[in-house]
Design a protein that fits this description.
Elements lengths: L3 E6 L4 H12 L4 E8 L3 H11 L3 E4 L5 H7 L6 E4 L1 H7 L7 E4 L7 H9 L4 E3 L3 H16 L4 E3 L2 H10 L7 E8 L9 H4 L4 H4 L9 H9 L1 H14 L6 E5 L5 E7 L4 E5 L5 H9 L30 H12 L3 H17 L5 H14 L8 H17 L4
Parallel strand pairs: 1-2, 1-5, 2-3, 3-4, 5-6, 6-7, 8-9
Antiparallel strand pairs: 8-10, 10-11
The chain binds nicotinamide-adenine-dinucleotide and magnesium ion.
Length: about 375
């Protein structure tokens, strides 16, 4: 079998570094062909020296010379800047893209890879939240599979193997509930950055950690699921499951439920997407049924965690509303991480932006770009930045 050459977009992040661990553990199956980072030049250099990719791209142009000098004795090509980052996705030197950039910034490179006909292992859920219809249509036109890396969507994808002829009644996304499960607004009003970053079950990048604390992450995942599995909004529900052992479930027309389970470890969905349709062995810790175990389930508190309700509203509304929701949320989370706004202000900012930016029922790609820019500008204007 030939080695699958992986382009890791966002190689210095939580997903990117774990993908490199999977590649390192399976050198007979995978190589790293493209590595990209926004700011972390030191880690990008270290990764390039270790994995010897075809090229690396550093988003921040000020870091170009640092990376270039450090790799001058290697054959690794070095590029810098936002344009180079998406152009790299159009270079036909790899077999699969791992889309591990965080946020809207991942959309353009991912679309370029799809247009080049490359399968996508998709971690970057915002790509589907922003322009899911266009991304999925372009993927279908180019016969490109979009393989989910997000653990819930990987779970659903795994439950659907062998079920192509069977209708889905509903999918049930599990949510840990994040670090503030059971808390009420009088507690949340005082929550700070360092509290929000302490996720009970997963260690992740800062943005998705805050999204998990506000439950926005689950809302983004509902929208992501709609596009990945071609579902109507009412087929998508969420249940809180604090232990994160069941990663999600599918219920079929006969009422039968299939669940995918395991210890929470992102390397599992990453390696499943990279190696699909094969499963590859590993030595990750296993779930132990011999220990006393309790699995709990409860309804999400939509009145306290209003970001989830706003996402459901955007999911049902469709058009550019999820794009507006996402852009406002990116600005709000950025501001929260810099202690510029409080935890509950995130929701207010998102809601006000959703009520203000022009709604478009069937946006073109350019209209999605414009919506993103307008929503960011509006959300930023609400903060004294
Ligand atoms: P992270 O912040 O740890 O890493 C983000 C990566 O993207 C870094 O390599 C960074 O250099 C790059 N990046 C950031 N801003 C960029 C920009 N403007 N342009 C180009 N590159 C940029 O994030 P993460 O936790 O690895 O998450 C990545 C994506 O995967 C997100 O969309 C997230 O929702 C999704 N995801 C993550 C996890 C997880 O466990 N971390 C789980 C499921 C889904
Ligand atoms: Mg997830």
């Amino acid at each position: 079998m030939s080695i699958k050459r992986i382009a890791i977009f966002g190689s210095t992040g939580s997903i990117g570094t774990q993908a490199l661990e999977v590649i390192q553990a399976n050198p007979q199956l995978f190589s790293a062909e493209i590595l990209t980072a926004q700011n972390n030049a030191d880690l990008l250099i270290k990764q390039a020296l270790q994995f010897n990719p075809n090229m690396v791209i550093i988003g921040d142009e000020k870091k170009y010379l640092t990376v270039k000098d450090a790799l001058s004795k290697t054959g690794v090509k070095v590029f810098a800047g936002e344009a180079a980052l998406s152009e790299a996705a159009s270079v036909d030197c790899y077999d699969m893209m791992l889309a591990g950039i965080v946020g809207y910034a991942g959309l353009r490179p991912t679309l370029n890879a799809i247009e080049l006909g490359k399968p996508i292992a998709l971690a970057n859920k915002e790509t589907l939240v922003v322009a899911g219809d266009i991304v999925m249509k372009t993927a279908a036109a180019n016969k490109v599979p979009i393989l989910p890396v997000d653990s819930e969507h990987s779970a659903i994808f795994q439950c659907l193997v062998g079920e192509t002829k069977n209708k889905i009644d509903q999918i049930i996304l599990t949510a840990s509930g994040g670090p503030f499960l059971g808390k009420k607004p009088n507690f949340l009003v005082n929550v700070k950055r360092e509290h929000a970053l302490q996720h009970p079950n997963w260690s992740m990048g800062a943005k998705i950690s805050v999204d998990s604390a506000t439950l926005m992450n689950k809302g983004l995942e509902m929208i992501e699921a709609k596009w990945l599995f071609n579902l109507s909004p009412k087929q998508i529900s969420v249940v809180i499951h604090p232990q994160s052992i069941i990663h999600s479930m599918v219920q079929f027309e006969d009422g039968s439920l299939k669940a995918q389970m395991g210890l929470p470890d992102m390397k599992l969905p990453i390696q499943y997407a990279l190696a699909f349709p094969k499963r590859i062995p590993n030595d990750f810790p296993r779930y132990n049924f011999k220990k006393p175990n309790v699995l709990n389930f409860e309804e999400p508190d939509l009145k306290t965690f209003r970001n989830l309700q706003l996402s459901i509203d955007a999911l049902y509304k469709g058009g550019n509303m999820p794009c507006i929701l996402n852009a406002a949320n990116e600005i709000a989370v950025f501001a929260f991480l810099r202690n510029r706004i409080g935890f509950l202000d995130i929701t207010e900012l998102v809601e006000r932006t959703m009520n203000s930016v022009k709604f478009i029922e069937k946006p073109t790609l350019q209209e999605y770009f414009d919506t993103d820019a307008n929503a960011r500008e509006y959300a930023a204007s609400l903060i004294q930045m």
